[in-house]
Design goal:
alpha+beta; 4 domains; 12 helices; globular
């Protein structure tokens, strides 16, 4: 699949790189242009004596350039791809020069070695040794988690005794200290929930924060009780509870499970940053299976996130889902690559209201009561602004039903302008109380909101 200029620019690590890459998309700057079904290449004259060698593996897409830039992809890679999108006839279809062939060959070798390591890790002997070692670590961690949950029990009981009205009167350092204690006890999932709860209490200036805080406190208490009864729960729900508390499943374990091979369309991305770790959740839907999937990418500190999967693009291959009561998070297998041709995304549920998507959410919530949000594709909704109401922004269906927009969404006016008063297709996340738009399709144009980041 050949990307559009808009999709290519979305690969840029920052706005400055996108601007610089656009400046490189000129035939006057390039020589030795060529390409074939797998790759593109060209020579770009820079400030030095020798031109820079830029090359692109179209299957990724993956970029390589011998310029000194530390950005990835650099402006030369972006410029080369933009030039191909605009001036395809300028690229001679021929055999790749040696420097391109060597790079493609090295990428293939790395992919094969990775597949071999994964196959070796899946042998019965390797699985047995890993399981024995993991059992020892888990027993030690189990004691740490139990100690942290005992402290959390006391803390929640104190909050319940004092009442919600007193929450804002407590110093914020108490919340930070409790979250830090849970991290020390190896329960980072609960610590993350507690930090979000603290932001709702101290950062929510408007009305309604008490209800949101009560819901989150209820979830924390429910998780604690579920963990106490973990052995009695169904296997899928056990995984959900452990994941919510902070237990991780290794990638090797996930890739050893049966996968789902399909053609997957990227419906939207959500970016989040808590000051320590940045994450990108990419939501996809299978053309044949109709299944939702979520791929997670992380970066710590000042490290940049990996290049995103492009909104609206289609990829063919196998996804392995993490064990869960309602499987959503997945890992891509080595065969996961850009689809060869256009793919029709599964249509949003028909109907004038929200009965079908809300029923799907209810079924997901019944399977996993700790579900924080659920992907939802709405076919024909109109953004509506009602100033003065508790939820001023909403999406309204043809029959008058409405879903409130999440208060964290900061691009409501942009969504309103794109719709122009007409019904549009919107993809986003439904929490059970509000809807967070991640992408909209209006008048043949697809726009991503990245979770409402300004």
């Amino acid at each position: 699949m050949i990307l559009t200029a808009e999709q290519i620019l979305a690969l840029a690590p920052d706005a400055a790189s996108a601007k610089a890459g656009s400046g490189q998309a000129s035939l006057a700057k390039w020589s030795g242009l060529g390409g074939h079904a797998q790759a593109l290449w060209g020579l770009c004259q820079g400030s030095g004596k020798e031109p820079y060698r830029a090359q692109i593996d179209l299957a990724g897409p993956a970029f390589k350039c011998n310029c000194p830039s530390r950005k990835f992809p650099c402006k030369h890679g972006l410029g080369l791809y933009l030039l191909y999108a605009r001036e395809r006839a300028a690229f001679c279809e021929t055999e790749a020069p040696q420097w391109v062939s060597d790079w493609l060959h090295s990428r293939e070798e790395r992919s094969e070695k990775k597949a071999a390591r994964q196959a070796e890790a899946a042998t019965p002997e390797a699985l047995a040794a890993r399981e024995a070692s993991q059992q020892k670590r888990q027993e030690k961690r189990q004691g740490n988690v139990e100690a942290g949950l005992a402290v959390l029990d006391t803390w929640l009981e104190d909050l319940a005794r004092d009442g919600l009205a007193t929450l804002r009167g407590k110093p914020s350092r108490e919340w930070d200290a409790m979250a830090a204690r849970l991290v020390d006890c190896q329960a980072p999932g609960l610590a993350g929930r507690l930090r979000r709860l603290g932001l709702q209490v101290y950062g929510g200036g408007g009305a309604g924060w008490e209800l949101a805080a009560a819901r989150e406190l209820g979830q924390l208490a429910l998780l604690r009780r579920a963990y106490q009864r973990l052995a009695a729960l169904p296997a899928g729900l056990q995984h959900e509870v452990r994941a919510a508390i902070g237990w991780a499943t290794s990638q090797e374990e996930v890739l050893a499970l049966a996968g789902v091979c399909d053609t997957w369309t990227v419906c939207g991305n959500r970016l989040q940053d808590d000051g320590r770790v940045s994450s990108r959740a990419t939501y996809l839907r299978g053309a044949g299976s109709g299944r939702w999937a979520m791929l997670l990418q992380f970066s710590a500190g000042s490290q940049a996130l990996p290049a995103p999967l492009l909104h609206g693009a289609s990829y063919h291959g196998t996804l392995h889902f993490y064990p869960a009561a309602w499987p959503l998070r997945a890992l891509a297998a080595p065969d996961f690559a850009v689809a060869a041709g256009p793919v029709a995304m599964p249509a949003a549920p028909d109907g004038e209201g929200f009965a079908a998507p809300l029923l799907a959410y209810a079924q997901a919530l019944a399977a996993n009561p700790f579900l924080e949000s659920c992907p939802m594709h709405l076919a024909a909704v109109t953004p509506v602004f009602a100033p003065g109401s508790a939820a001023p922004w909403s999406l309204r269906a043809a029959n008058g039903e409405a879903l409130a927009l999440d208060g964290a969404f900061r691009q409501a006016w942009q969504l309103h302008a794109l719709a122009g008063g007409h019904a549009v297709e919107v993809f986003g996340l439904w929490s059970g109380y509000s809807f967070l738009p991640l992408a909209v399709s209006a008048a043949g144009r697809a726009v991503s909101f990245d979770g409402g980041q300004a």
